[in-house]
Amino acid sequence: MLPTYQRVGGSSSSTANPLLGRRSFRSREKCLILLVLSTFGFVCLGGFFFLPDNFSADRVLKAYKQFQRAGPEIFIPPPPPAAHGRDEDIHRLDDREKLQEKIRKELPDEFLEKPDVDVGAGAGGAVIVPIGQHPPDEDIPLGGGGAGKGGGPGGPAIEGPAGVVQPPHSAGDEKEEGGEDEEAAGGGQEQEQQAQEPARSGQQPVSQRGSNQHPLTYNSTVGEDPDPAVREKRNKVKEMMVHAWSNYKLYAWGKNELRPLSKRGHSNSIFGSYDLGATIVDGLDTLYLMGLHREFDEARDWVERKFTLENVDADLSVFETNIRFIGGFLTCYALTGDRLFLEKARYVADKLLPAFQTPTGIPYALINVRNGMSKNYGWASGGSSILSEFGTLHLEFAYLSDITGDAVYRDRVQTIRSVLKDIEKPKGLYPNYLNPKTGKWGQQHMSLGALGDSFYEYLLKAWIQSGHEDEEAREMYDEAMQAIIQHMIRSSPSGLMYVSDMKFERLEHKMDHLACFAGGLFGLGGTSLNNQYSERYMEIGEGLTNTCHESYIRTYTRLGPESFRFNDGVEAKALKAQEKYYILRPETFESYFIMWRLTHDQKYRDWGWDAIQALEKHCRTPTGYTGLKNVYLTEPVKDDVQQSFFLAETLKYLYLLFSDDSLLPLDDWVFNTEAHPLPVKDRNPLYRQAPASSAP
Fold it and tell me: What is the pLDDT of residues 482-495, one digit of tens each?
């Protein structure tokens, strides 16, 4: 039913709805409408007076200039379809070159911390080389060539600026300098002139680097194995070095390390999060030994102009700063004779000396190099210093005293030696913690892995470095090894030999990756001095190296875990999540290299090549190398850090593994714990001992 309505009022429709019959608005309504219109007009017109003028001619001109400065090809047309096996964007490559050219023209040299780079096609990713230079795999001439003062089979020795001495030349170098490719070599006369004058860019000429004493010139042919297959493997390691270095240079130049996935720098707490160029200093000698002298010159230039500790207001690790920076500089001084590196090594060592000002002479672990304040780690047992840190200073400090004539450095480490020699040792073993104030041991934890490892290494190597004169070091080494053999070395049910940790007289059947250096250490001890221990040392060296290899091949990635255990039916396998990492560590490859040199057993080279393939498959990225978080997974997560020791140690030991014994012979060189080779006294002419008259 429809609703019914009742009319109100009269019958007229106009009277029923008065609004419909009215032809004009009331005055009150007119005012309201006028007010609304006025407000709208005010808002619209006011915008032209009070809002910013984004369309002024000046603003448009500024925007135009910004686009103009960015380059004519800021809007890049889409690239052509990529063919199979070729995914490089040609526009991106071309634009990178143009951008670098603009930067070079517009900025003065002192602002160019990072070397100019260019990107070219390469297998497995971009290969980055300095603009206008030869590709990284080409040999480069090391000098001006021709007869000259002091000439002979090795060529002339020409003094360069800042005490840099030109290296001797081999016959192969002279042939290179003959000018077969005049454009690439720059011409014989031009090259000879460059050998005697600083480069116009201000960079040290290649020919003014090196030593006039050493019989070898370090280029890509030195130390080559006569077997072409071995040479090919060595060249592969060199290419890995170029890949790691070039991407560090591109994305993290001057930073401590590279985050290859993030394409940025990385600094960890051991350097106080300051940018000290750890990868540059750590990788210098590897570049030089591989014949990558152009990259070496770039790194040297950075060290000369940029390396300083003056503004570092943070706690640095005394141990890490010593082995990476002092060790790296000392090696470069030994190889090149360039006094810049000697001065830098002494500069850093002087910054560390206040850490030794303790009642016992045992240094603290950390030092603020700006104010000289030092301390130990808060987590260390009872405020103790750590054995592997204060016990791993002797090689560098003793050598620094000998080449400077200043006994202060040797005195500091000799004080440490005296304390450790005289202190009572439980079961003949050295606990990992020692209080620098009281001279008493802390927690009873003994290890040949983390916290203890390199102390034992430096006992043997101090004796070797001294030309076998430091008998005290050799005796301490033999005594310590006998205690370790008796109390800590064990074998698994299947016969795998391992070195366990001891905590409060109880064994923890776990072996750290860091302890995998011990295979080479025992082998070196067994061959360097023939005594009643030699045969047993060699047997242990082979056994421990084999066990570390087993820890590698029992993972899916064929790379070894951070630590592995021997209990509950488990052998050489990590059980905890934090033990399953692989962070590009070198210790296993160090033992491969040393055991190869001592035995020439082909299996060590085979194991090394297997590891190289695993590194390439799982750790290589288009922008560098990264560690893994779980070596047992088919697709492990990457940790996004290219450690500086990957360039200093891992790649160096693999390169030497596939080199001839003439490259850094073990009788003439001893490696510090960061793989920086130091010359042996009275055997190696590059020891460069200061005249006795200069000693205090």
Answer: 999 999 999 999 99
